[in-house]
TrEMBL record:
The keyword Nucleotide-binding applies. This is Acetate--CoA ligase. Pfam families: ACAS_N (PF16177), AMP-binding (PF00501), AMP-binding_C (PF13193). Belongs to the ATP-dependent AMP-binding enzyme family.
């Protein structure tokens, strides 16, 4: 039996039983699951934890390598099964099908490239690559030799790359020369070269040539992927790692200017992402009730449209699906190229059975003509997924009716970079779905709602709303923030005693289903991307004409939330369209195009409390055109500015 099958729950009753066991006897519960994986040595202690420090350790003393679980162990039975199907940006270019055996060989060989270039266990390697199989190969190669990967989304700007490289002192950078996203070329190597001016720790840059364009190379430092591969041995035994050794660092936004390098460790991350992948999506399992193609003999094709630069791609394009031995699709392009039917064209072409995307994409696609959907055969689809932000009712129904044709369950998966894996979600075809609800916690997850006073709202079969916290550790939770454990404690473990605070608000119905209502802190989710307001404000404030700024989110019909900037200028500066454009440009250059504010309003002053804190609540209301209930503004330091801001609102 494959590992995936041994992990899958098969009915609502089995889910309930597993959930109960996971709460009553968590260690026994996780022991039984972890035993399904390949370990060099079994762990001595399942769990040690203390949320006051905070410290969490899973499977201590266990020895393993995650790539042996993703690759080596499949070779016997699944060696010839397709591991990755790669779909290029340009539909005229050929797809690539890479079997588990081929992927094993490619990863081993590239692991030797890393070694030949001086990378050792524990070294940090930054990866800034487009969505090509080599990105997955590079990350798995790091894991093979025990190096720590830090992937930076290839839409980030050079200063964002540099600050992430410097934060964790990366020794190597792996990138590609350029890539096409839609009809636009993205010059990745140029972006890297700019970053590399300020990254003293990087000794080597490996460059994958994705296009034939000439690539500027710095002799001694920059090396081509293919040339290095020629010199590398084929075989690379996996480094035997401790369960609590670091697998990767992934940066996420926070409420200060500095991104947080979330640290994930090997054993718990592997166990949890694989377990949740197997159960939420139910790939290659019996066909869930009511779904199509029950007799189709082909194995499932799972496609998550996220970028590997985000946690969704780490956990549910690469590690989870590969450890489960499933075929995973990687798409290089964008949903709108060559037209807005591209996703559906790919589902049709590759016989995709599981399709996992973000509400922002669904909303953008729902605005297009239905002909773009209906001209493709979507009969292969069995399960649909949603991730990254709350899915609104309209988008949920459009997805359900037009893509799932009413009989593919939608798994609305709530989780975070920090949680490593899916926390609250239906299990496809097994537990009930409910529009706009992430529904029930996965086994092992103990969510709680907290009230205004910081007290737990007990579950007594009544509807309630509050802030979402988790009161017991789970295997894939981030262990710390790289280089700043105090910040980890402050951000996640100080809001409530002995609990992990998620930063999200949530509603719970009378049967215990959760619906996530959105962030309650200074993080704004734009098109499913997590953006901190502070770094954007810092970028704006760097403009010489700007005195101060405040960023808030406002509702947007495609992005979900878009950014609204309130900006005050230094004396004698003129707030015109030219300056607006420059401010947006500045944000784009410092952080990336995704962080550009949609609206920039020049204001005389920002509303502040007497202690000098910007009252974002008021700004949020004005940006959302909801000024009926601004609350008492008379206690502000400068109540007059509110009227001016309202009158000139965009
Ligand atoms: C939001 C993405 C509602 C939430 C995996 C969370 C969601 C933040 C959902 C984490 C969902 C994610 N429903 N909200 N299904 N999934 N979120 O770290 O606010 O990029 O805290 O991880 O996205 O974003 P991150």
């Amino acid at each position: 039996m494959e590992v995936r099958e041994t992990l899958q729950l098969r009915s609502f009753a089995e889910y309930k039983e597993a959930y109960q066991k996971s709460v009553e006897n968590p260690e026994e519960f996780w022991d039984a699951i972890a035993e399904k994986f390949y370990w060099h040595k079994k762990w001595d202690k399942t769990l040690e934890w203390d949320f006051t420090k905070p410290e969490v350790k899973w499977f201590q003393g266990g020895k393993l390598n995650i790539t042996e679980n993703c690759l080596d162990r499949h070779l016997d039975k699944l060696g010839n099964k397709t591991a990755i199907i790669w779909e290029p940006n340009n539909p005229d270019e050929e797809s690539r099908h890479i079997t588990y055996r081929q992927l094993f060989v490619k990863v081993s060989r590239f692991a030797n490239v890393l070694k030949n270039n001086g990378i050792k266990k524990g070294d940090r390697v930054c990866i800034y690559m487009p969505m090509i199989p080599e990105l997955a190969i590079a990350m798995l190669a790091c894991a093979r030799i025990g190096a720590i990967h830090s992937i930076v989304f290839a839409g980030f700007s050079s200063s964002a790359i540099a600050s992430r490289i410097n934060d964790s002192s990366c020794k190597m950078l792996i990138t590609a020369n350029e890539v096409y996203r839609g009809s636009k070329p993205v010059k990745l190597k140029e972006m890297c070269d700019e970053a590399l001016k300020n990254t003293p720790t990087v000794q080597t840059v490996i460059v994958y040539r994705r296009t034939v364009e000439p690539t500027p190379m710095t002799p001694g430092r920059d090396k081509f992927w293919f040339e290095e591969l020629q010199k590398a041995e084929k075989e690379c035994p996996a480094e035997v790692m401790d369960a609590e050794d670091v697998l990767f660092i992934l940066y996420t936004s926070g409420s200060t200017g500095k991104p947080k390098g979330m640290v994930h460790t090997i054993g718990g991350y592997m166990v949890y992402t694989t377990y949740t992948f197997a159960n939420v999506f139910q790939c290659d399992h019996f066909a869930p009730t009511g779904v199509k193609n029950q007799s189709k003999p082909k194995s499932d094709v799972y496609w998550c449209t996220a970028d590997i630069g985000w946690i969704t791609g780490h956990s549910y394009i690469v590690y989870g699906p590969l450890a489960a031995g499933v075929t995973t699709v990687m798409f290089e392009g964008v949903p709108s190229y060559p037209d807005y039917g591209r996703f559906w064209e790919i589902c049709d072409k590759l016989d995709v059975t599981h399709f996992y995307t973000a509400p922002t994409a669904i909303r953008a696609l729902a605005k297009q003509s239905l002909d773009l959907v209906n001209k493709h055969d979507l009969n292969s689809l069995k399960v649909l997924g949603s991730v990254g932000e709350p899915i609104n009712d309209e988008a949920w129904h459009w997805y359900n009716d037009n893509i799932g044709k009413g009989n593919s369950p939608i798994v609305d998966t709530w989780w975070q970079t920090e949680t490593g894996g899916i926390m609250i979600s239906p299990l496809a075809g097994i537990t009930p779905t409910r529009p706009t609800f992430a529904t029930l916690p996965l086994p092992g997850i103990q969510p709680v709602l907290m009230d205004e006073e910081g007290k737990e709202i007990p579950f007594k079969s009544q509807k309630s709303e509050g802030r979402l916290a988790i009161k017991y550790p789970w295997p894939s939770m981030a262990r710390t923030i790289y280089g700043d454990h105090q910040r980890y404690k402050d951000v996640y473990f100080s809001a409530y005693d002995k609990m992990y605070f998620t930063g999200d608000g949530a509603y719970r119905d009378a049967t215990g289903n959760y619906r996530i209502t959105g962030r309650v802190d200074d993080v704004v989710i734009v098109s499913g991307h997590n953006l901190g307001t502070a770094p954007i404000e810092n970028a704006i404030n760097e403009h010489l004409s700007v005195a101060e700024s405040a960023i808030v989110g406002f509702p947007h019909d495609i992005k979900g939330t878009a950014l609204y900037a309130y900006v005050t200028l230094h004396e004698n500066q003129i707030g015109d369209d030219e300056l607006r454009a420059k401010i947006r440009e500045q944000v784009s250059n410092t952080i990336g195009p995704i962080a550009k504010p949609d609206k920039v309003q020049f204001v005389e002053g920002l509303p502040k409390t007497r202690s000098g804190k910007i009252m974002r609540r008021i700004l949020r209301k004005i940006a959302s055109k909801d000024t009926s209930n601004l609350g008492d503004t008379s206690t502000l330091l400068n109540p007059d500015v509110v009227k001016d801001i309202m009158e000139n609102a965009l």
